[in-house]
Design a protein that fits this description.
This protein is α/β, with parallel strands linked by helices. It has three domains: about 120 residues, D-Maltodextrin-Binding Protein, domain 2 (3-Layer(aba) Sandwich), CATH 3.40.190; about 90 residues, D-Maltodextrin-Binding Protein, domain 2; about 80 residues, Double Stranded RNA Binding Domain, CATH 3.30.160.40. It has ten helices and 13 strands. It is globular, with a radius of gyration of 20 Å. The termini are far apart. Bound molecules: the ligand NCc1[nH]cc(CCC(=O)O)c1CC(=O)O. InterPro entries: HemC, Porphobilin_deaminase_cofac_BS, Porphobilin_deaminase_N, Porphobilinogen_deaminase_C, Porphobilinogen_deaminase_C_sf. This is Hydroxymethylbilane synthase.
């Protein structure tokens, strides 16, 4: 007999197709964990979803999670599903909430998608002066660092509408390609559109992912013991350790949502973790980079702090402060 059998568990998330796929995924995992458990999706379109302009002018990426966290605090939902990448790293979790689980990380790579009918199969085939669409300052800086000839143009909106704009089915974008997270396309069943995966290792032709890329975070009220215990069973310790290293790096850098910061931690089969961090100028012309590896017994947050200290020593503060928060 499940202690959740008397009422459905309300799963909160955003209303975009990607977010709905995420809440459905979590609901399926929970049903598998606790036969008899019923869930109900509560989808909310946030202020940031409705805003067509620059996110930084509204208050930043944190708005994607804020409205849902408030529902959780008010008791209108029992858990919240967030992309960890969208959870601000420069402020603590809202009072009374806990990060009860991080799910196993999906493929964290950024990918290139080209318009329907384009013959391009890799970035190297893009002609000089080609236009790529992304609103991520991190992607923009890394693309320009490798190819200063590229023109990078902003694009916002749900992943599906970005693809429609790219294909010309919707007005508002003329670009030779779009750079996105593979994880988002996976959740939408759209990986068939991918023509190239960017490497995460910090080579010149790659794109080091964002802190928390590909990770789904499950939050609940800290005093809700049954839900905290239930969600804890979905926690992936390896991903949690990687996320902890990455987020310690981001916290130490005090980056705001408009900072071109990349941070990615990987784990070897023997448990050894490597954290790589980079901070860029907006045009990618200047950057600092650092990496460190530690054995499985080392505190992942300390790894983040160490890579952060090295980046600051190399001048990361000046790069971060040269960019306006919005
Ligand atoms: N910035 C929005 C966002 N937040 C998380 C993902 C994708 C999934 C993930 O990386 O967890 C995306 C879309 C994208 O960046 O293309």
């Amino acid at each position: 007999m499940s202690e959740f059998s008397d009422r459905p568990l309300r799963v909160g998330g955003r209303a975009s197709a990607m977010a709905l796929a995420q809440t459905e995924h979590v609901s399926r995992l929970l049903a598998r964990l606790e036969p008899g458990l019923r869930t109900e999706t509560v989808a909310t379109s946030t202020e940031a979803d409705r805003w067509p302009g620059e996110l930084s002018r509204l208050g930043g990426k944190g708005l994607f999670v804020k409205a849902i966290d408030e529902q959780l605090r008010r008791g209108e939902v029992d858990l919240a599903v967030h992309c960890l990448k969208d959870v601000p790293g420069d402020q603590p979790l809202p009072e009374g909430l806990t990060l009860a689980a991080v799910l196993p990380r999906a493929d964290a790579r950024d990918v290139l998608v080209v318009p329907a009918g384009s013959a391009v199969t890799s970035p190297g085939e893009l002609p000089a002066g080609a236009t790529l669409a992304t609103s991520s300052v991190r992607r923009r800086a890394q693309l320009l660092a490798a190819r200063p000839d590229l023109e990078i143009v902003p694009v916002r909106g749900a992943v599906g509408s970005r693809l429609e704009k790219l294909d010309g089915a919707r007005a508002g974008l003329r670009a030779d390609g779009l750079v996105l997270a593979r994880a988002g396309l996976e959740r939408l069943g759209l990986t068939g559109r991918i023509v190239h995966h960017f490497g995460v290792e910090g080579r010149a032709d790659g794109i080091v992912p964002a802190v928390g890329a590909g990770v789904l975070a499950l939050q609940c009220r800290a005093d809700d013991v049954p839900v905290t215990r239930l969600l804890a069973r979905l926690d992936d310790p390896r991903t949690r350790a990687e996320a902890s290293a990455e987020r310690a790096l981001l916290r130490g850098l005090r980056g705001h949502c408009n900072s071109p910061i990349a941070g990615h931690c990987t784990t070897e089969p023997d448990g050894r973790r490597t954290l790589r961090g980079l901070v860029f100028s907006p045009d990618g012309g200047r950057f600092v980079r650092a990496a460190a590896s530690r054995g499985p017994e080392a505190d992942p947050a300390a790894l983040g702090t160490e890579v952060c200290a090295e980046l600051l020593r190399q001048g990361a503060r000046e790069l971060i402060d040269s960019v306006q928060p919005g």
